[in-house]
Amino acid sequence: MFKRLLLTGTVILAALLTTGCNDTLLLNNLSQEQANEVLAVLQQHNIASQKSGTLKEGYAISVPKSDTTTALSILNQYQLPAKAEVQISQAFPDNALISSPQAERARMLSLQEQRLEQSLKIISQVVNARVHVSYPLNDNTFITDLPAEHVSILITYSGSLNENMFISKIKTLIKNGLSNVRFEDISVVLFQAPPLQYSAPTQGAQPLMTPWLYALCGVLLAALLAGGSVLYLLVKKQRPETPQDVTPPDVPEKEDMPV
Q1: pLDDT tens track of the chain, all 259 residues?
Q2: 100-192 domain in CATH 3.30.300.30?
Q3: What is the CATH number of domain 24-82?
């Protein structure tokens, strides 16, 4: 009976150690828009991700433990979770102090950069994009003559595409999005996105369990052994003695009677 109890306890211990280890929390405290965007990108790459949470407390994204490395690689490439979309009204709130014309134009160009980046990122093969507009902040002609702007675009993409045609379309988009830029002053640089990482880096021999798991195993095993020992002693104490266990009383030897 003691062996059966010990075996049952070992099975329970193994079940406790393996429960809840299938999923990994990837992100939390996300807005609904951020969570949906992350969920969509992960599922596009066949990652079985799950969304949980509420609008008030924020949303969380979890993935299977075996897909954690791949999911992190995807988030790194796509720079997720993304920031909230920029609105022009954010740059000029009603209660803002009046700033100089140079500062207002610099702020406007910065917002235009971010909005153009947002437009580029919705293209299917674009993984990430950056837009940089050059403008002379310390030049007095900045406001009067409005010199031609120079724009540089950095794009990482996935899959295969016709780079010449793609660059031409990007330049057209940028030229029509900025009022004072010439087609020849726009440069587009393309980079192929690196392959996703599907497994964790190879490391040296690592312990199978962390210290707290060792401690938990020790406590549970000690409790099982102590409980089993007490139960064994109680059962042995309450068990009736068998005839084999009873020691016969000493019988005095008979003395030889004289004849």
Answers
A1: 545 554 555 555 555 444 445 688 999 999 999 999 999 999 989 999 999 999 889 999 999 999 999 999 999 999 899 877 666 556 566 566 656 777 777 788 888 898 999 999 999 899 999 999 987 666 555 455 667 789 999 999 999 999 999 999 999 999 999 888 999 999 999 999 988 877 766 554 445 455 666 677 777 777 777 777 777 777 777 766 555 555 555 555 555 555 5
A2: yes
A3: 3.30.70.1530
Pull the structure tokens for residue 159.
Answer: 């899959």
- If we measure between CA atoms, which residue out of 188, 158, 195 comes closest to residue 174? 188
CA atoms within 13 A on the CB side of 117: 24
Q: What is this structure's pTM?
A: 0.59
**Residues 175, 176, 177, 180: is their CA dihedral positive or negative?**
positive
